[in-house]
Amino acid sequence: MSENYDPAPADDHVPARGFPPAEFEARLSRAQTAMAAAGLDGLLLTTEAEFRYFTGFLSRFWLSPTRPWFLLVPASGNPVAVVPSIGRACLQATWLDDVRCWESPQPQDEGVSALADALRELFGPNARIGMPEGPETHLRMPLGDYRRLQAQLPGIAFADATGVIKSLRMIKSPAEVEKIARACTIVSDVFEALPEMLVAGMSEIEIFRRFKIACLERGIDDVDYLVGGAGPGGYTDIISPPSPRPVRAGDILMLDTGAVFDGYFCDFDRNFAFGHVPEHAGKAYRVLLDAAEAGLQAARPDATCAELHRAMQGVIDAEFAGGSGVGRMGHGLGMQLTEWPSITPDDHTVLQPGMVLTLEPSLDLAAGRMMVHEENLVVTADGAKLLTRPAPQSMPVIPA
Amino acid sequence: MSENYDPAPADDHVPARGFPPAEFEARLSRAQTAMAAAGLDGLLLTTEAEFRYFTGFLSRFWLSPTRPWFLLVPASGNPVAVVPSIGRACLQATWLDDVRCWESPQPQDEGVSALADALRELFGPNARIGMPEGPETHLRMPLGDYRRLQAQLPGIAFADATGVIKSLRMIKSPAEVEKIARACTIVSDVFEALPEMLVAGMSEIEIFRRFKIACLERGIDDVDYLVGGAGPGGYTDIISPPSPRPVRAGDILMLDTGAVFDGYFCDFDRNFAFGHVPEHAGKAYRVLLDAAEAGLQAARPDATCAELHRAMQGVIDAEFAGGSGVGRMGHGLGMQLTEWPSITPDDHTVLQPGMVLTLEPSLDLAAGRMMVHEENLVVTADGAKLLTRPAPQSMPVIPA
Questions:
Q1: Interface of A with B in 265-324 (CB under 8 A)
Q2: Which stretches make up the Peptidase M24 domain (chains A, B) (predicted)?
Q3: Do A109 and A208 fall into the same domain?
């Protein structure tokens, strides 16, 4: 059992922390079915989300790049962790029964021999091992060490397992959805309270700080992602840190946050006007709300991401010409701020119950000024259910 | 100029945000000297810290794994960024004069062709391009895309450039040290105030929350890293998230934080006793403070990391047998929570002025109970200067 699993939280509205062993057994079973279909003898996983998906090991320690962490998922039987010595106690407290360690840091052989030994023992000299090598993945170990691993295991063929991992992680369990929903609810509360927390003349830096504190006070664990900005009639980009510039009457402020509850993200934004809503921005706001509503209605099982995109883009095109540079109108989310799939014209992923998505229509207001609106939903058998409290029908105004 | 560079902050104690162009020109010049010595025609960089080091581009957007970001640093001339379309405006606002974009997301060709074109144009068909492939590095692009890139560029030899990058990033400029020092000062204030903020009966989750809020209120941008725990007479590991367990009389609480100011981390911890200091823990605390002091005295230019380790371990060995499982007694820090070098018996890195290090002696108190103490310093020509306010000489007690 995950050491942080708490089946009886203090408050009925707060989901349990961690997951019961049955959750991991179900994930493993689905993985092994997919691995059999893909002809894989096992998986080798190195990244935080994949490692946590199968073990429940939640730690901020992944921020330190010094030590790799490895998980082997065999075609039958339980996963085996091969981890640096500092992780021994934590991994032994998870549901895993086989945890192997090497003394670390040891840059001359940072887990490579330990991992090679485990691979040989579990899979024999010849095997086909899947690793995520496709879109939105990376290898979290030094490239030189990966080459050394391959050289030690001439009979092991490494194959791309992105499809296997993606098919699992795109579909969230009810317990996963609860955690995302909790983050969405808390941040919805904060966005609703925000107009009373802000006044014109505050810098973006100060506004960001107050927003983060308000999220923490209400039960968010970490505000890992907060971007946005303010500017006259609109903002210039949506990925910048806050500036020291004071917000003024006539500005539009956007905050877009990925806040975390028990390792799961929400990801949505809200727009605010200071003093008054400029006419053009007010119209854009309504169009973006209509676009998101069209996306929500279209987000039924068996619809595709491309169809969602078309539904939203159609609403925007009727009122605003041109694109926005964002490149998509939403994406999956869960253990990561953004996950597969992408809501683009070319992504033909078919929606299934349990998928959690953002709807994120955007448009260019004028040269260098844009507006983005974002909501989060879960796909159910009956259609989409919003996890965020819907944005107000007209842009909230902060006195200035 | 970095768009967030603010040469005139409101308060004399708060360093300017961002860096002036001269900082990046100096970094580039040092890089090109090191590249010439290593026989490299250029560098290909994909990771956040390296990208930011040469461009100044600071963004939380790196949390999204969808899009890679590429930087090419030629042996002469300015760096060239090859970035997804969403980053165009941000990169054009940096000191770079050559920013190339591809429309993204586009998983079928997520920047691979754009990057290959730029490599060919800048370096010709045959060149030797350095990438970080060694300890503590990784490649932030899909492995499959890296293979496709190599296949498109048969005349380009990719070579390990970890040594080049490490030699640059280990030595901090005065402006970098100022930012780390600012984070250290704010968090020192928070640790000092903490005994008045906590009472027995609070859960670890609540304690972590209050700590993060206090950091934000005093001017920290993000508390990206906070680990620790509490337990009777000591804690069991140092990388776990907080538990719902209430802290009780007789517990030792440790908080270890990597808090960020303008993209630069501090990384240190403090220990607290609830109700009273158990005798064994009190002794361990004094030994760890003595060990850190021995490390501080040893941290002079031309000393090695191994010598620092020996100085600290010697103090501990005289009083406590056995190791701790942590594996090292400190490390570099800066744009990342942990950076090269490591304070281990095998790391013979020679200290130089401008290096910022943690001193992190640890010991096992009893089976499964440990204690860690950590301070941060900068190496100067005259010896080490502490960036953290030293921990109290005896463990602070919180009434219980």
A1: none
A2: 178-380
A3: no
What CA–CA distance (Å, rounded) separates B210 from B272? 15
Of the candidates B65, B243, B258, B60, the residue with the CA atom closest to the CA atom of residue A221? B243
Show residues of chain B in contact with A205, CB under 8 Å: 221
How far apart are the C-alpha atoms of A373 and A234, rounded to whole Å?
12
Which chain B residue shows the shortest CA-CA distance from A161? B144
Geometric angle at alpha carbon B316, from B311 and B321, rounded to 5°: 135
- Using an 8 Å CB-CB cutoff, list chain A residues near B328: 105
Same domain, A299 and A162: no
Q: pLDDT tens, B322-360?
A: 777 789 999 999 999 999 999 999 999 999 999 999 999
> Tens of pLDDT along B166-207?
999 999 999 999 999 999 999 999 999 999 999 999 999 999
Do both B131 and B218 map to the same domain?
A: no
Distance (Å) of CA A165 to CA A28, A34, A129, A249, B211: 11, 9, 13, 48, 36
- Whether B143 contacts chain A with CB within 8 A: yes
User: Which among B4, B142, B217 is the nearest to A135, CB-wise?
Assistant: B142
The H-assigned helical ranges of A124-253 are 143-152, 162-169, 174-197, 204-217
- Are residues A88 and B240 in contact, defined by beta-carbon separation less than 8 angstroms? no
C-alpha R_g of chain A: 23
Cis upstream peptide for A105 (omega within 30°): yes
- 3-state secondary structure (DSSP) of residue B198: coil
Structure tokens at A267: 């990801």
At A194 the three-state DSSP class reads helix
Is residue A203 in some structural domain?
Answer: yes
Side-chain-side CA neighbours of A229 within 13 Å: the count stands at 23
Q: What is the mean pLDDT of residues A48-61?
A: 97
Q: What's the ipTM? A: 0.96
Give pLDDT tens digits for A178-228.
Answer: 999 999 999 999 999 999 999 999 999 999 999 999 999 999 999 999 999
Domain boundary among A150, A169, A188: A169
Cα atoms found within 13 Å of the Cα of residue B1, Cβ hemisphere only: 8
Those of residues 212-251 in A touching chain B at CB distance below 8 A are 212-213, 216-217, 221-227, 236-241, 243-244
Range of the domain at B27: 21-169
- pLDDT exceeds 80 at position B15: yes
Contact by Cβ (8 Å): B158, B44? yes
State residue A2's pLDDT score: 38
Predicted confidence band of residue B74 (pLDDT cuts 50, 70, 90): very high
